[in-house]
């Protein structure tokens, strides 16, 4: 488990299904991530994918738990997306973050993502990482900028444009 000022980051558990489903069935949240709400079955598949990634790679997406409330408020981490976007993208660990509506505007995405990147560097070594963000997702672009990500191209992914960003350690 990783502890920050306001959050705990931990591996996903079966008991996280309801929170993941609630977050990923919120159309406001999902508008930048495929544009549609996930069914409970799809949320279950998402959860099993999260757990499986840790087993295969030894890293993955953490569940974000708000210290004050104990509520699961998001996901953050680095993973291998195998998206097939380009060799320059697919050969690096991919960073991602998603927060439930009640966690927006509190700085949690930046806090959690910075902690996940520190953990990854400590356990897997400093290395280049990438992420993709829809051009109109200004909040996520701000988080990426705070983490040191810079644009290196744009591609079409799942029917819409995304900006490819990379973070190269000093």
Explain how this protein is built.
The chain is α+β, with helices and mostly antiparallel strands and 170 residues long. The protein has one domain (2-126): Gcn5-related N-acetyltransferase (GNAT) (Aminopeptidase, 3-Layer(aba) Sandwich). The protein contains 6 helices and 8 strands; from the N terminus they run ββαααββαβαβαββ. Helix 1 packs across helix 3. It is globular and about 35 Å long.
List strands and helices in order, with pairings.
Layout: E1 2-3, E2 7-10, H1 17-24, H2 27-30, H3 40-57, E3 61-66, E4 72-79, H4 87-90, E5 94-99, H5 108-124, E6 129-133, H6 138-147, E7 150-157, E8 160-167
Antiparallel strand pairs: 1-2, 2-3, 3-4, 4-5, 6-8, 7-8
Helix pairs in contact: 1-3, 5-6
Organism: Bosea thiooxidans
Keywords: Transferase
Domain N-acetyltransferase: 7-169
Which class best fits the helix and strand makeup?
A: alpha+beta
**Tertiary shape:** globular
| Beta-strand percent range | 25-35%
CATH class: Alpha Beta
Rg over CA atoms, rounded to whole Å, is 15 Å
In CATH, what is the homologous superfamily?
Gcn5-related N-acetyltransferase (GNAT)
- Poorly predicted tracts of residues: none
Mean pLDDT: 95
CATH architecture classification: 3-Layer(aba) Sandwich
How can the largest sheet be summarized? 5 strands, antiparallel
Distance between the termini: 26 Å
Strand segment tally: 8
Strand order of the largest sheet: 1-2-3-4-5
Q: What is the helical fraction, as a range of percent?
A: 25-40%
H-E order: EEHHHEEHEHEHEE
